[in-house]
Write a structure and sequence with these properties.
alpha/beta, 10 strands, 12 helices, 4-stranded parallel sheet
Length: 480
Amino acid sequence: MAAARQEQGNVMLYTAITFVGLFVISAILAVIFYIKSEDWRNQFVTSQQQMEEFATTPEVQNQGTIIGQKDRQTSRVKQLIGYLDTLYKISTGSEPQETSAEVKFGELETKYKDIVAALPKDFVIIAEANDTNGPGIFRIVEMYNNKLNQKDELISQLHTQLNDLGSEFDTAKNGAAEREAQLLVQLRTIRQDANSVQQSYNQLRDLMDKKATEQVQALMQQRDEAITEKNKTRQELLETMSKLSITQNRLQDSLEKLDVLKPRPKEDIAAYKPDGHIISIDIASNIVFIDIGSNARIYPGLTFSVYDRNAPIPTDGTSKAEIEVFNVDKNTAMARINRSSKKNPISEGDIIINLIWDSTAVNSFVVAGDFDFDGNSEIDSDGATKVKQLIENWGGKVEDTVTIDTDFVILGNQPQVKKKPTLDEIELDPLATEKYEASLKASEKYQEVKTQAKDLFIPIFNLKRFLNFIGYESLATGKK
Protein backbone atom coordinates (compact mmCIF):
# COMPACT_ATOMS: atom_id res chain seq x y z
CA MET A 1 0.00 0.00 0.00
CA ALA A 2 2.78 2.34 0.80
CA ALA A 3 4.42 1.83 -2.58
CA ALA A 4 1.09 2.38 -4.36
CA ARG A 5 0.46 5.62 -2.52
CA GLN A 6 3.98 6.80 -3.23
CA GLU A 7 3.50 6.07 -6.91
CA GLN A 8 0.15 7.92 -6.86
CA GLY A 9 1.79 10.89 -5.15
CA ASN A 10 4.48 11.05 -7.85
CA VAL A 11 1.82 11.13 -10.58
CA MET A 12 0.00 13.99 -8.89
CA LEU A 13 3.31 15.80 -8.48
CA TYR A 14 4.11 15.42 -12.16
CA THR A 15 0.61 16.51 -13.02
CA ALA A 16 0.97 19.62 -10.83
CA ILE A 17 4.38 20.39 -12.36
CA THR A 18 2.95 19.97 -15.89
CA PHE A 19 -0.02 22.21 -15.06
CA VAL A 20 2.24 24.90 -13.62
CA GLY A 21 4.51 24.64 -16.68
CA LEU A 22 1.55 24.97 -19.03
CA PHE A 23 0.24 27.90 -17.04
CA VAL A 24 3.62 29.64 -17.19
CA ILE A 25 3.84 29.00 -20.95
CA SER A 26 0.27 30.32 -21.44
CA ALA A 27 1.07 33.41 -19.42
CA ILE A 28 4.23 34.01 -21.45
CA LEU A 29 2.30 33.50 -24.67
CA ALA A 30 -0.45 35.83 -23.45
CA VAL A 31 2.10 38.53 -22.69
CA ILE A 32 3.73 38.06 -26.08
CA PHE A 33 0.33 38.21 -27.80
CA TYR A 34 -0.61 41.34 -25.87
CA ILE A 35 2.64 43.02 -26.86
CA LYS A 36 2.20 42.00 -30.48
CA SER A 37 -1.44 43.09 -30.53
CA GLU A 38 -0.42 46.53 -29.23
CA ASP A 39 2.15 46.77 -32.03
CA TRP A 40 -0.44 45.71 -34.57
CA ARG A 41 -2.94 48.20 -33.17
CA ASN A 42 -0.36 51.00 -33.38
CA GLN A 43 0.52 49.97 -36.91
CA PHE A 44 -3.18 49.94 -37.78
CA VAL A 45 -3.74 53.43 -36.32
CA THR A 46 -0.65 54.70 -38.16
CA SER A 47 -1.87 53.12 -41.39
CA GLN A 48 -5.34 54.60 -40.83
CA GLN A 49 -3.86 58.09 -40.34
CA GLN A 50 -1.71 57.71 -43.43
CA MET A 51 -4.75 56.57 -45.38
CA GLU A 52 -6.72 59.60 -44.13
CA GLU A 53 -3.97 61.82 -45.56
CA PHE A 54 -4.51 60.25 -48.98
CA ALA A 55 -8.31 60.11 -48.88
CA THR A 56 -11.23 60.26 -46.45
CA THR A 57 -13.36 57.22 -45.79
CA PRO A 58 -16.22 58.44 -48.09
CA GLU A 59 -13.67 59.15 -50.80
CA VAL A 60 -12.20 55.65 -50.43
CA GLN A 61 -15.68 54.16 -50.56
CA ASN A 62 -16.48 56.16 -53.73
CA GLN A 63 -13.06 55.86 -55.36
CA GLY A 64 -14.52 54.09 -58.40
CA THR A 65 -16.86 57.02 -59.01
CA ILE A 66 -14.22 59.67 -58.26
CA ILE A 67 -11.20 58.16 -60.04
CA GLY A 68 -12.74 55.68 -62.45
CA GLN A 69 -12.37 52.00 -63.10
CA LYS A 70 -9.18 50.61 -61.59
CA ASP A 71 -6.54 48.77 -63.53
CA ARG A 72 -5.52 45.60 -61.61
CA GLN A 73 -1.83 46.21 -62.23
CA THR A 74 -1.90 49.90 -61.24
CA SER A 75 -2.43 51.52 -57.86
CA ARG A 76 -4.90 54.35 -57.38
CA VAL A 77 -2.09 56.87 -56.75
CA LYS A 78 -0.27 55.78 -59.88
CA GLN A 79 -3.56 55.97 -61.79
CA LEU A 80 -4.08 59.60 -60.66
CA ILE A 81 -0.46 60.44 -61.51
CA GLY A 82 -1.05 58.94 -64.98
CA TYR A 83 -4.09 61.19 -65.45
CA LEU A 84 -2.02 64.22 -64.37
CA ASP A 85 0.81 63.28 -66.75
CA THR A 86 -1.69 62.91 -69.60
CA LEU A 87 -3.14 66.36 -68.81
CA TYR A 88 0.39 67.78 -68.68
CA LYS A 89 1.20 66.28 -72.08
CA ILE A 90 -2.06 67.55 -73.63
CA SER A 91 -1.49 71.04 -72.22
CA THR A 92 2.23 71.40 -73.00
CA GLY A 93 2.79 68.98 -75.87
CA SER A 94 5.80 67.40 -74.15
CA GLU A 95 6.46 64.50 -71.80
CA PRO A 96 6.55 65.42 -68.08
CA GLN A 97 9.75 65.11 -66.07
CA GLU A 98 10.05 62.68 -63.15
CA THR A 99 8.99 65.21 -60.53
CA SER A 100 6.24 65.55 -57.98
CA ALA A 101 2.61 66.24 -58.90
CA GLU A 102 2.94 69.61 -57.14
CA VAL A 103 5.83 70.63 -59.40
CA LYS A 104 3.97 69.45 -62.52
CA PHE A 105 0.84 71.36 -61.57
CA GLY A 106 2.96 74.42 -60.74
CA GLU A 107 4.48 74.29 -64.23
CA LEU A 108 1.02 74.05 -65.79
CA GLU A 109 -0.22 76.99 -63.72
CA THR A 110 2.85 79.08 -64.65
CA LYS A 111 2.40 78.34 -68.36
CA TYR A 112 -1.30 79.21 -68.11
CA LYS A 113 -0.50 82.57 -66.47
CA ASP A 114 2.09 83.29 -69.18
CA ILE A 115 -0.49 82.53 -71.88
CA VAL A 116 -3.09 84.81 -70.27
CA ALA A 117 -0.50 87.60 -69.81
CA ALA A 118 0.56 87.32 -73.48
CA LEU A 119 -2.97 87.61 -74.86
CA PRO A 120 -3.54 90.60 -77.21
CA LYS A 121 -5.35 93.63 -75.86
CA ASP A 122 -8.45 92.95 -77.93
CA PHE A 123 -9.05 89.66 -76.04
CA VAL A 124 -11.59 90.22 -73.30
CA ILE A 125 -10.62 88.16 -70.21
CA ILE A 126 -13.07 88.81 -67.39
CA ALA A 127 -11.46 86.67 -64.62
CA GLU A 128 -7.90 86.89 -63.28
CA ALA A 129 -5.30 84.32 -64.34
CA ASN A 130 -5.38 82.53 -60.94
CA ASP A 131 -9.19 82.60 -60.67
CA THR A 132 -10.85 79.16 -60.77
CA ASN A 133 -13.58 80.72 -62.92
CA GLY A 134 -11.05 81.99 -65.46
CA PRO A 135 -11.47 81.54 -69.22
CA GLY A 136 -9.40 78.33 -69.40
CA ILE A 137 -7.03 77.12 -72.11
CA PHE A 138 -9.83 75.68 -74.26
CA ARG A 139 -11.78 78.95 -74.13
CA ILE A 140 -8.64 80.89 -75.07
CA VAL A 141 -8.01 78.51 -77.98
CA GLU A 142 -11.62 78.94 -79.05
CA MET A 143 -11.25 82.73 -78.88
CA TYR A 144 -8.07 82.52 -80.96
CA ASN A 145 -9.86 80.36 -83.52
CA ASN A 146 -12.72 82.86 -83.71
CA LYS A 147 -10.26 85.72 -84.17
CA LEU A 148 -8.36 83.72 -86.79
CA ASN A 149 -11.57 82.92 -88.67
CA GLN A 150 -12.52 86.60 -88.66
CA LYS A 151 -9.06 87.57 -89.94
CA ASP A 152 -9.23 84.89 -92.64
CA GLU A 153 -12.65 86.12 -93.71
CA LEU A 154 -11.40 89.72 -93.83
CA ILE A 155 -8.32 88.67 -95.82
CA SER A 156 -10.56 86.76 -98.24
CA GLN A 157 -12.74 89.83 -98.70
CA LEU A 158 -9.69 92.02 -99.26
CA HIS A 159 -8.31 89.54 -101.81
CA THR A 160 -11.64 89.58 -103.62
CA GLN A 161 -11.70 93.37 -103.66
CA LEU A 162 -8.07 93.46 -104.80
CA ASN A 163 -8.83 91.04 -107.64
CA ASP A 164 -11.86 93.13 -108.63
CA LEU A 165 -9.79 96.31 -108.61
CA GLY A 166 -7.08 94.56 -110.61
CA SER A 167 -9.62 93.45 -113.20
CA GLU A 168 -11.07 96.96 -113.40
CA PHE A 169 -7.59 98.43 -113.72
CA ASP A 170 -6.68 95.99 -116.51
CA THR A 171 -9.94 96.74 -118.30
CA ALA A 172 -9.36 100.50 -117.98
CA LYS A 173 -5.75 100.11 -119.10
CA ASN A 174 -6.75 98.06 -122.14
CA GLY A 175 -9.50 100.55 -122.94
CA ALA A 176 -7.05 103.44 -122.68
CA ALA A 177 -4.58 101.65 -124.96
CA GLU A 178 -7.31 100.97 -127.51
CA ARG A 179 -8.49 104.57 -127.26
CA GLU A 180 -4.93 105.82 -127.69
CA ALA A 181 -4.52 103.66 -130.82
CA GLN A 182 -7.82 105.00 -132.18
CA LEU A 183 -6.72 108.57 -131.47
CA LEU A 184 -3.42 107.99 -133.22
CA VAL A 185 -5.33 106.71 -136.25
CA GLN A 186 -7.60 109.75 -136.03
CA LEU A 187 -4.55 112.00 -135.73
CA ARG A 188 -3.05 110.53 -138.87
CA THR A 189 -6.40 110.94 -140.62
CA ILE A 190 -6.63 114.56 -139.44
CA ARG A 191 -3.13 115.25 -140.68
CA GLN A 192 -4.06 113.75 -144.05
CA ASP A 193 -7.20 115.88 -144.09
CA ALA A 194 -5.10 118.91 -143.13
CA ASN A 195 -2.75 118.22 -146.03
CA SER A 196 -5.74 117.81 -148.29
CA VAL A 197 -7.19 121.07 -146.99
CA GLN A 198 -3.84 122.76 -147.49
CA GLN A 199 -3.82 121.57 -151.09
CA SER A 200 -7.38 122.76 -151.54
CA TYR A 201 -6.39 126.07 -149.97
CA ASN A 202 -3.50 126.44 -152.37
CA GLN A 203 -5.79 125.65 -155.27
CA LEU A 204 -8.36 128.10 -153.92
CA ARG A 205 -5.70 130.75 -153.48
CA ASP A 206 -4.59 130.24 -157.06
CA LEU A 207 -8.19 130.40 -158.17
CA MET A 208 -8.74 133.56 -156.10
CA ASP A 209 -5.70 135.12 -157.66
CA LYS A 210 -7.30 134.51 -161.03
CA LYS A 211 -10.85 135.43 -160.12
CA ALA A 212 -10.54 137.45 -156.92
CA THR A 213 -13.54 139.66 -157.47
CA GLU A 214 -15.94 136.85 -158.39
CA GLN A 215 -14.80 134.69 -155.51
CA VAL A 216 -15.07 137.52 -152.96
CA GLN A 217 -18.60 138.32 -154.09
CA ALA A 218 -19.64 134.66 -153.89
CA LEU A 219 -18.16 134.28 -150.38
CA MET A 220 -19.79 137.52 -149.21
CA GLN A 221 -23.13 136.28 -150.45
CA GLN A 222 -22.67 132.95 -148.65
CA ARG A 223 -21.70 134.80 -145.45
CA ASP A 224 -24.77 137.05 -145.64
CA GLU A 225 -27.01 134.03 -146.13
CA ALA A 226 -25.40 132.24 -143.18
CA ILE A 227 -25.80 135.35 -140.96
CA THR A 228 -29.45 135.66 -141.95
CA GLU A 229 -30.11 131.98 -141.19
CA LYS A 230 -28.28 132.27 -137.87
CA ASN A 231 -30.29 135.35 -136.82
CA LYS A 232 -33.52 133.56 -137.75
CA THR A 233 -32.56 130.50 -135.70
CA ARG A 234 -31.48 132.70 -132.77
CA GLN A 235 -34.79 134.55 -132.81
CA GLU A 236 -36.72 131.27 -132.76
CA LEU A 237 -34.58 130.05 -129.85
CA LEU A 238 -35.21 133.26 -127.88
CA GLU A 239 -38.96 132.91 -128.42
CA THR A 240 -38.84 129.27 -127.25
CA MET A 241 -36.82 130.19 -124.15
CA SER A 242 -39.25 132.99 -123.34
CA LYS A 243 -42.18 130.58 -123.54
CA LEU A 244 -40.31 128.06 -121.38
CA SER A 245 -39.52 130.73 -118.77
CA ILE A 246 -43.18 131.76 -118.64
CA THR A 247 -44.24 128.10 -118.25
CA GLN A 248 -41.71 127.51 -115.46
CA ASN A 249 -42.87 130.65 -113.62
CA ARG A 250 -46.48 129.50 -113.86
CA LEU A 251 -45.47 126.04 -112.59
CA GLN A 252 -43.57 127.57 -109.66
CA ASP A 253 -46.56 129.79 -108.78
CA SER A 254 -48.84 126.76 -108.88
CA LEU A 255 -46.49 124.75 -106.63
CA GLU A 256 -46.29 127.64 -104.12
CA LYS A 257 -50.07 127.86 -104.02
CA LEU A 258 -50.28 124.08 -103.61
CA ASP A 259 -47.79 124.22 -100.72
CA VAL A 260 -49.99 126.78 -98.98
CA LEU A 261 -53.06 124.57 -99.35
CA LYS A 262 -51.25 121.27 -98.59
CA PRO A 263 -47.52 121.31 -97.77
CA ARG A 264 -45.49 118.56 -99.46
CA PRO A 265 -44.09 115.83 -97.18
CA LYS A 266 -40.47 116.03 -96.19
CA GLU A 267 -38.67 114.54 -99.19
CA ASP A 268 -36.00 112.66 -97.22
CA ILE A 269 -38.37 111.22 -94.59
CA ALA A 270 -37.47 107.67 -95.71
CA ALA A 271 -33.93 108.19 -94.39
CA TYR A 272 -35.27 108.49 -90.83
CA LYS A 273 -37.14 105.17 -90.84
CA PRO A 274 -35.75 102.84 -88.09
CA ASP A 275 -34.49 99.46 -89.31
CA GLY A 276 -34.26 97.85 -85.86
CA HIS A 277 -33.46 98.33 -82.18
CA ILE A 278 -30.77 97.54 -79.63
CA ILE A 279 -32.00 94.78 -77.29
CA SER A 280 -28.93 94.35 -75.04
CA ILE A 281 -25.33 95.52 -74.59
CA ASP A 282 -22.20 93.68 -73.40
CA ILE A 283 -19.89 96.55 -72.45
CA ALA A 284 -17.00 94.28 -71.45
CA SER A 285 -16.96 92.58 -74.88
CA ASN A 286 -17.85 95.78 -76.82
CA ILE A 287 -20.80 93.91 -78.36
CA VAL A 288 -24.51 94.70 -78.82
CA PHE A 289 -27.49 92.53 -79.76
CA ILE A 290 -30.12 93.78 -82.25
CA ASP A 291 -33.68 92.56 -82.89
CA ILE A 292 -33.31 91.68 -86.60
CA GLY A 293 -31.64 88.61 -88.08
CA SER A 294 -31.48 86.37 -91.13
CA ASN A 295 -35.27 86.47 -91.54
CA ALA A 296 -34.88 90.18 -92.28
CA ARG A 297 -31.94 89.57 -94.70
CA ILE A 298 -29.26 90.66 -92.22
CA TYR A 299 -25.72 89.47 -93.02
CA PRO A 300 -22.22 89.87 -91.50
CA GLY A 301 -20.39 93.07 -92.44
CA LEU A 302 -23.52 95.25 -92.52
CA THR A 303 -23.15 98.51 -90.54
CA PHE A 304 -25.76 100.64 -88.78
CA SER A 305 -25.89 104.07 -87.15
CA VAL A 306 -27.30 104.16 -83.60
CA TYR A 307 -29.63 106.98 -82.42
CA ASP A 308 -31.36 107.77 -79.11
CA ARG A 309 -34.78 106.14 -78.88
CA ASN A 310 -36.41 109.25 -77.33
CA ALA A 311 -34.69 111.99 -79.34
CA PRO A 312 -35.19 113.21 -82.95
CA ILE A 313 -32.64 112.04 -85.51
CA PRO A 314 -30.27 114.87 -86.54
CA THR A 315 -30.79 116.11 -90.11
CA ASP A 316 -27.09 115.60 -90.89
CA GLY A 317 -27.32 111.97 -89.73
CA THR A 318 -24.69 112.33 -86.98
CA SER A 319 -25.16 109.31 -84.72
CA LYS A 320 -24.20 108.46 -81.13
CA ALA A 321 -22.52 105.22 -82.25
CA GLU A 322 -21.77 102.94 -85.20
CA ILE A 323 -22.00 99.12 -85.13
CA GLU A 324 -21.00 96.30 -87.52
CA VAL A 325 -22.82 92.94 -87.66
CA PHE A 326 -20.57 89.87 -87.32
CA ASN A 327 -22.88 87.04 -86.20
CA VAL A 328 -26.47 86.45 -87.40
CA ASP A 329 -29.22 84.25 -85.98
CA LYS A 330 -32.77 83.77 -87.24
CA ASN A 331 -34.37 86.75 -85.48
CA THR A 332 -31.39 88.46 -83.81
CA ALA A 333 -27.80 89.40 -84.60
CA MET A 334 -24.59 90.33 -82.76
CA ALA A 335 -22.64 93.45 -83.72
CA ARG A 336 -19.35 94.96 -82.59
CA ILE A 337 -19.22 98.64 -81.62
CA ASN A 338 -16.98 100.51 -84.11
CA ARG A 339 -17.56 103.95 -82.54
CA SER A 340 -19.43 105.20 -79.49
CA SER A 341 -19.64 108.20 -77.21
CA LYS A 342 -18.62 107.96 -73.56
CA LYS A 343 -20.93 110.85 -72.68
CA ASN A 344 -23.88 109.27 -74.47
CA PRO A 345 -23.37 105.46 -74.50
CA ILE A 346 -25.59 102.96 -76.28
CA SER A 347 -28.76 102.03 -74.36
CA GLU A 348 -31.35 99.30 -74.72
CA GLY A 349 -34.14 100.37 -77.06
CA ASP A 350 -31.95 102.72 -79.17
CA ILE A 351 -32.86 102.63 -82.87
CA ILE A 352 -30.53 101.59 -85.71
CA ILE A 353 -30.59 102.88 -89.31
CA ASN A 354 -28.88 102.04 -92.60
CA LEU A 355 -29.93 104.22 -95.56
CA ILE A 356 -29.02 101.57 -98.16
CA TRP A 357 -30.29 98.36 -96.57
CA ASP A 358 -34.00 97.59 -96.45
CA SER A 359 -35.60 94.35 -95.26
CA THR A 360 -38.53 94.56 -97.71
CA ALA A 361 -37.34 96.49 -100.79
CA VAL A 362 -34.33 97.39 -102.94
CA ASN A 363 -33.55 101.12 -102.81
CA SER A 364 -32.46 102.85 -106.02
CA PHE A 365 -29.56 105.37 -105.97
CA VAL A 366 -27.94 107.77 -108.44
CA VAL A 367 -24.32 108.80 -107.73
CA ALA A 368 -22.66 111.85 -109.32
CA GLY A 369 -19.67 114.09 -108.66
CA ASP A 370 -16.18 113.76 -107.18
CA PHE A 371 -15.70 112.31 -103.69
CA ASP A 372 -13.09 112.60 -100.92
CA PHE A 373 -13.93 109.20 -99.48
CA ASP A 374 -11.19 108.94 -96.80
CA GLY A 375 -11.46 112.57 -95.65
CA ASN A 376 -7.88 113.66 -96.52
CA SER A 377 -9.03 116.80 -98.41
CA GLU A 378 -8.03 115.24 -101.75
CA ILE A 379 -10.42 113.97 -104.41
CA ASP A 380 -10.19 110.18 -104.79
CA SER A 381 -10.03 108.95 -108.37
CA ASP A 382 -12.18 105.96 -107.37
CA GLY A 383 -14.36 107.77 -104.82
CA ALA A 384 -17.57 107.41 -106.84
CA THR A 385 -16.74 103.73 -107.44
CA LYS A 386 -16.37 103.14 -103.69
CA VAL A 387 -19.77 104.74 -103.01
CA LYS A 388 -21.39 102.60 -105.72
CA GLN A 389 -19.74 99.44 -104.37
CA LEU A 390 -21.08 100.19 -100.86
CA ILE A 391 -24.58 100.60 -102.25
CA GLU A 392 -24.46 97.40 -104.33
CA ASN A 393 -22.72 95.32 -101.63
CA TRP A 394 -25.44 96.23 -99.11
CA GLY A 395 -28.39 95.40 -101.36
CA GLY A 396 -29.01 98.74 -103.09
CA LYS A 397 -29.27 99.44 -106.83
CA VAL A 398 -27.28 102.10 -108.71
CA GLU A 399 -28.86 103.81 -111.73
CA ASP A 400 -27.27 106.16 -114.28
CA THR A 401 -30.12 108.65 -114.54
CA VAL A 402 -32.69 110.14 -112.16
CA THR A 403 -36.27 108.95 -112.62
CA ILE A 404 -39.47 109.05 -110.63
CA ASP A 405 -38.46 105.64 -109.17
CA THR A 406 -35.15 106.91 -107.77
CA ASP A 407 -35.09 106.78 -103.95
CA PHE A 408 -31.93 108.78 -103.12
CA VAL A 409 -29.26 110.86 -104.90
CA ILE A 410 -25.66 110.95 -103.59
CA LEU A 411 -23.79 114.08 -104.75
CA GLY A 412 -20.10 114.76 -104.26
CA ASN A 413 -18.18 117.86 -105.30
CA GLN A 414 -18.97 119.28 -108.73
CA PRO A 415 -16.34 118.04 -111.25
CA GLN A 416 -13.96 120.74 -112.46
CA VAL A 417 -13.97 121.32 -116.23
CA LYS A 418 -10.46 121.09 -117.61
CA LYS A 419 -9.03 123.79 -119.85
CA LYS A 420 -9.58 123.13 -123.54
CA PRO A 421 -6.27 121.81 -124.89
CA THR A 422 -4.31 123.54 -127.64
CA LEU A 423 -2.87 121.80 -130.70
CA ASP A 424 0.55 121.66 -129.04
CA GLU A 425 -0.95 120.04 -125.91
CA ILE A 426 -2.77 117.51 -128.09
CA GLU A 427 0.49 116.57 -129.78
CA LEU A 428 2.12 116.03 -126.38
CA ASP A 429 -0.88 114.15 -124.97
CA PRO A 430 -3.16 112.49 -127.56
CA LEU A 431 -5.74 111.92 -124.79
CA ALA A 432 -5.93 115.61 -123.83
CA THR A 433 -9.07 116.22 -125.90
CA GLU A 434 -10.76 113.13 -124.53
CA LYS A 435 -9.94 114.18 -120.96
CA TYR A 436 -11.34 117.65 -121.61
CA GLU A 437 -14.56 116.25 -123.10
CA ALA A 438 -14.89 113.75 -120.23
CA SER A 439 -14.58 116.52 -117.60
CA LEU A 440 -17.13 118.62 -119.50
CA LYS A 441 -19.52 115.70 -119.74
CA ALA A 442 -19.09 114.86 -116.02
CA SER A 443 -19.84 118.47 -115.03
CA GLU A 444 -22.93 118.56 -117.26
CA LYS A 445 -24.17 115.24 -115.85
CA TYR A 446 -23.66 116.52 -112.29
CA GLN A 447 -25.82 119.59 -112.99
CA GLU A 448 -28.41 117.44 -114.79
CA VAL A 449 -28.67 114.95 -111.87
CA LYS A 450 -28.90 117.79 -109.34
CA THR A 451 -31.61 119.61 -111.29
CA GLN A 452 -33.67 116.47 -111.95
CA ALA A 453 -33.50 115.45 -108.28
CA LYS A 454 -34.78 118.86 -107.19
CA ASP A 455 -37.54 118.85 -109.82
CA LEU A 456 -38.71 115.36 -108.76
CA PHE A 457 -38.28 116.12 -105.02
CA ILE A 458 -35.83 113.23 -104.54
CA PRO A 459 -33.67 113.40 -101.37
CA ILE A 460 -30.10 114.59 -102.01
CA PHE A 461 -27.26 113.48 -99.70
CA ASN A 462 -23.67 114.66 -99.62
CA LEU A 463 -20.96 112.09 -98.83
CA LYS A 464 -20.66 112.80 -95.08
CA ARG A 465 -24.42 112.68 -94.51
CA PHE A 466 -24.61 109.48 -96.57
CA LEU A 467 -21.85 107.81 -94.51
CA ASN A 468 -23.52 108.96 -91.27
CA PHE A 469 -26.85 107.40 -92.26
CA ILE A 470 -25.26 104.00 -93.10
CA GLY A 471 -23.03 103.78 -90.00
CA TYR A 472 -19.82 103.73 -92.09
CA GLU A 473 -18.28 107.15 -91.37
CA SER A 474 -15.72 105.89 -88.82
CA LEU A 475 -14.63 102.96 -91.05
CA ALA A 476 -14.29 105.21 -94.11
CA THR A 477 -12.20 107.88 -92.39
CA GLY A 478 -10.39 105.65 -89.86
CA LYS A 479 -11.86 107.53 -86.85
CA LYS A 480 -13.06 105.69 -83.73
